Amino acid sequence: MTRLKSFLLAAVLLSSLGAAYAAPAQQPVQQLNRPQQNAALYAAAPQPLTLEQCGQCHPKHFKDIKQTGGKHQFDCRECHSIFHAYNPRKNNYAAIMPSCNLCHTLVHGEKHSQCLNCHQNPHAAQKPPAINLVVNLCSDCHANQQTQLNAFPSKHTQLSCDNCHHTEHGLIPSCAECHQPHFEAQAFTECKACHDVHQPLAINLAEDVELETCAACHSDIFAKWQKTPSKHGQVSCAACHQVHKQIPQCQDCHATPASHSKNLLAKFPRCLDCHLDVHDLPTKN
Ligand code: HEC
Ligand code: HEC
Ligand code: HEC
Ligand code: HEC
Ligand code: HEC
Ligand code: HEC
Ligand code: HEC
Ligand code: HEC
Ligand code: HEC
Ligand code: HEC
Ligand code: HEC
Ligand code: HEC
Question: What atom in ligand 7 is closest to the CA of residue 155?
């Protein structure tokens, strides 16, 4: 037994020694890693990737476009005509990334040519983060509002755009954030009927505005007008005062009555010399 054992041991030792020793010169080619050839694997031409497949590996880009891509919901390759071509040795990243001007002009003018400064994520370009919008840029794109604020000075002129348009770009604030209504039951949706917020003191009064508003500041006249038996009680304040603080001419609505002689009117040039109170005309009864 022991002899047999030592024989075997010697044989194993010898053979392994021999293998190690002989390998460099003698190993046959067949023993290299050599996968089997299979031409069938190459029979079919590869199909182009589907959009879903792009999304499988780029789930964030897919989701961004799906959720906030807006009108960019077309195939990735409309923009990425070249992709999977980045090579650090060529340092070609910028060169292979799509440029907005493939499809867009300088929509906001020459000054705003660096689109990605604001539209930070091209896959969610619809909503540029507000944080990138510096207040002194607002009027580059919204000239009218600044023009109005300057042309009609009011306390709103002293505010900065983002005092009101805060939190996110495009937000429209309610007047209720900063103001009380003129009377308790007044809805904040009514404010705009009289006030243009960028020129809040240039007030045009449409005939159907809520007249109770006037009572908040002209309570005496309002009360008198409400009670008057004369026909002017049926005429809206705003029909006579179409622009706030403007005084109408009687002749805007009345031809001089035939009963009023020239002589008479020469002596009493103001209609109200006789008719006394336009808000509460004296009546016969
Ligand atoms: C392959 C063409 C293409 C490229 C490239 C492209 N866009 Fe557009 N983009 C469009 C089209 C088409 C619309 C829709 C236009 C329309 O309906 O008026 C659009 C609309 C937009 C809109 C409006 C969003 C909306 O949903 O209303 C923004 C913002 C925009 N693009 C920004 C960009 C920016 C920034 C880039 C560069 C990162 C860019 N686009 C690159 C084709 C493109
Ligand atoms: C409107 C054009 C447009 C479309 C559509 C678009 N991309 Fe892009 N994509 C860009 C631009 C521009 C850049 C370069 C952004 C930069 O330089 O910061 C970019 C960058 C990338 C990058 C590399 C930078 C990163 O964010 O990782 C990947 C990956 C990418 N896009 C994948 C996709 C996939 C996937 C789709 C479709 C699901 C897609 N894109 C659709 C314009 C587009
Ligand atoms: C099997 C996974 C896989 C699929 C499918 C895939 N990509 Fe990629 N892609 C990657 C990887 C990995 C990178 C490199 C890492 C990175 O930038 O995210 C990359 C990088 C990119 C880049 C930026 C770098 C470059 O060289 O262009 C773009 C753009 C891109 N892919 C677009 C696409 C588009 C478009 C599709 C669909 C037509 C697509 N990918 C499908 C895995 C994939
Ligand atoms: C200074 C920031 C800024 C820069 C730079 C900028 N944008 Fe915009 N862009 C905006 C904002 C803000 C909007 C309005 C988004 C909204 O509707 O909420 C917008 C809207 C758009 C729209 C949709 C509305 C429209 O006017 O047609 C397109 C398209 C657009 N941008 C393309 C571009 C392109 C292309 C570039 C580069 C040439 C660019 N933008 C550069 C801020 C910017
Ligand atoms: C006192 C608050 C306030 C200030 C200050 C203000 N806005 Fe506005 N803005 C509003 C309100 C409220 C609306 C909604 C008006 C409406 O619906 O009629 C609005 C509407 C807008 C609109 C939509 C179009 C329009 O005119 O209705 C734009 C654009 C705008 N503002 C830009 C600006 C810019 C730019 C500035 C600074 C130069 C500015 N705003 C200052 C409150 C303000
Ligand atoms: C690069 C151009 C650009 C800049 C800068 C910009 N906006 Fe805009 N803004 C737009 C575009 C484009 C729209 C959407 C189209 C429209 O209604 O005019 C928009 C929409 C708005 C709206 C909503 C309009 C509505 O009718 O609902 C408001 C409010 C507004 N912007 C305020 C601002 C304020 C405040 C700033 C500065 C902090 C600013 N914007 C900066 C381009 C810009
Ligand atoms: C973010 C706050 C804010 C919002 C929103 C706002 N205002 Fe003002 N408004 C002010 C401030 C502050 C003043 C000055 C108040 C003072 O000095 O007593 C003012 C003053 C006014 C004045 C008087 C102007 C003057 O020069 O005497 C009017 C009228 C006015 N606001 C109407 C409105 C209307 C209507 C809205 C909604 C469409 C609105 N405001 C939205 C802050 C705001
Ligand atoms: C029927 C027209 C009308 C409506 C509706 C209206 N206002 Fe006025 N508001 C005026 C007039 C007129 C003035 C006086 C302006 C002046 O002094 O030159 C005024 C003045 C103001 C003032 C400045 C003076 C003050 O009282 O402190 C504020 C603030 C104001 N309005 C806010 C509002 C708000 C908020 C709403 C909506 C809840 C609103 N207004 C609805 C006509 C109106
Ligand atoms: C928030 C207060 C306020 C409201 C609301 C208001 N006014 Fe006035 N109104 C004034 C102030 C202040 C004056 C200037 C008074 C002065 O110069 O002595 C004025 C002046 C006037 C004048 C001109 C007075 C003159 O002496 O020439 C008329 C007309 C007028 N208002 C009509 C109206 C009508 C109509 C309404 C309702 C649609 C209204 N007002 C609502 C505050 C208001
Ligand atoms: C039929 C036309 C007419 C109607 C309706 C009318 N007004 Fe007048 N209002 C005038 C005229 C004309 C004057 C100038 C009176 C004068 O010269 O003595 C005037 C003057 C005023 C004045 C300033 C002078 C003063 O007496 O303090 C105020 C304020 C006023 N109106 C508010 C109102 C209010 C509020 C209403 C509705 C409750 C109203 N008006 C309805 C025609 C009208
Ligand atoms: C906005 C138009 C308007 C203005 C301005 C106006 N009125 Fe009138 N007035 C009327 C209407 C409407 C009647 C009712 C007519 C009818 O029913 O026949 C009327 C009726 C009258 C009547 C008859 C009164 C009655 O109760 O029978 C007199 C008098 C009168 N107006 C005088 C004046 C005088 C004076 C002025 C200027 C201080 C004036 N009006 C300004 C619209 C106006
Ligand atoms: C010298 C006083 C006097 C003057 C000035 C005067 N009125 Fe009269 N007005 C009257 C008298 C009196 C009546 C008749 C009252 C009646 O019959 O009920 C009258 C009636 C009216 C009537 C209603 C009846 C009709 O005939 O249609 C109107 C409208 C009227 N006047 C408008 C005016 C106008 C407008 C002026 C200024 C151009 C004016 N009045 C100036 C005294 C005057």
Answer: 26
